[in-house]
Design brief:
single chain, 321 residues, alpha/beta, six-stranded mixed sheet, 13 strands
């Protein structure tokens, strides 16, 4: 009898076909009604699950007595109750490293777009307003040779630092839970406190995991420490920033601009951010290139199959005890 795999979100078609050849595959379908109820029912006799973007915890997994592995097609895992999964001896795997460079590219896209007012100037042009030479209202801020502050010097943070240091001759500061001397030496990066980084940086990029320590890390107090010409970029998780405080800072022009790929609530369909010409907003597309999403799907597939076939998965978030 084939093992059962529950696909709880859209995944790569080729990967789906491979799974269907190997296992009994059931797909969660929003058109069939309540998602959590479907997960609750289908996980009863499931051996594995694969997908992304759903909250999985005791409420919808309490009957999953056979479940061996949840393979998340993502790097972040704040949607999953890791403690509960560990208690139930369920592997949780994810897809780190394969999206590092793509996400760092997007961070710099947001940084430069916000610095040079790309979206608002694009809209200005298309509205037929270019009737005279661009004036101070259209001016941006320079990037080359400025100070780049990175909050979270993991693999993505390091890739952002590399772009700033080698590509734009930027002075790099970083704040992290601990010093990363070997990484920092490559970019002559200075380890400093969060307050020090915020007050000295022309550009601040947030690249931390979401956890108890990083939730609401940037609030009104922290935003007030930033320079008026500074740009804030967030490619981590929306809850790292107090969104209301950020909106207030952007409205009052106490910072120059923000570039955002993540939000407190997602999908975000209405927000004051959309009304601000100094907020660049993208729909959580840090890893959204065809090549990267393919690599993520491949790694998630490998993690799932390894666990189901009794092998140690390569990328485990929390090992079952």
């Amino acid at each position: 009898m084939k093992k059962k795999v529950v696909v709880f979100s859209q995944i790569d078609n080729e990967i789906l076909m491979r799974l269907e050849q190997q296992y009994h595959v059931v797909q969660i379908n929003p058109k069939k009604g309540d998602i959590n109820q479907q997960i609750l029912e289908e996980s009863r006799d499931a051996d594995g699950m694969i997908g992304a973007g759903r909250r999985l915890n005791e409420s919808n997994l309490k009957h999953a007595e056979k479940l061996k592995v949840i393979s998340s097609v993502s790097v972040g895992y704040d949607n999953y109750d890791v403690s509960y999964l560990n208690q139930k001896h369920i592997w949780l795997t994810h897809t780190p490293h394969v999206l590092t460079e793509t996400t760092a590219d997007l961070a710099f896209t947001l940084l430069m777009s916000a610095a040079r007012k790309v979206p608002s100037l694009d809209a200005w042009m298309k509205q037929g307003q270019w009737s005279r030479t661009a004036g101070p209202e259209q001016f941006g801020v320079d990037v080359y040779g400025k100070t780049l502050g990175i909050i979270g010097l993991g693999s993505i943070g390091a890739a952002i630092a590399r772009r700033g240091f080698y590509g734009f001759n930027m002075n790099v500061l970083y704040h992290n839970r601990r010093e990363k001397i070997e990484i920092a030496e490559q970019f002559k990066a200075e380890f400093c406190s969060l307050d020090n980084l915020l007050s000295r940086s022309d550009f601040v990029v947030i690249a931390v995991d979401l956890n108890a320590a990083s939730k609401s890390l940037i609030g009104a107090r922290e935003l007030q420490l930033m320079q008026q010409h500074a740009v804030l970029v967030n490619i981590s998780r929306g809850s790292v920033i107090d969104e209301k405080a950020l909106i207030d800072a952007l409205k009052s022009r106490s910072i120059f601009a923000a570039g955002l790929d993540v939000y407190e609530k997602e999908p975000l369909q209405a927000s004051e951010l959309f009304e601000l010409d100094n907020a660049v907003t993208l729909p959580h597309v840090g890893s959204a290139t065809a090549q990267t999403r393919k690599r993520m799907a491949e790694l998630a597939y490998e993690n799932l199959v390894d666990a189901l076939e009794g092998r140690q998965p390569r990328c485990v978030v929390k090992k079952a005890v």
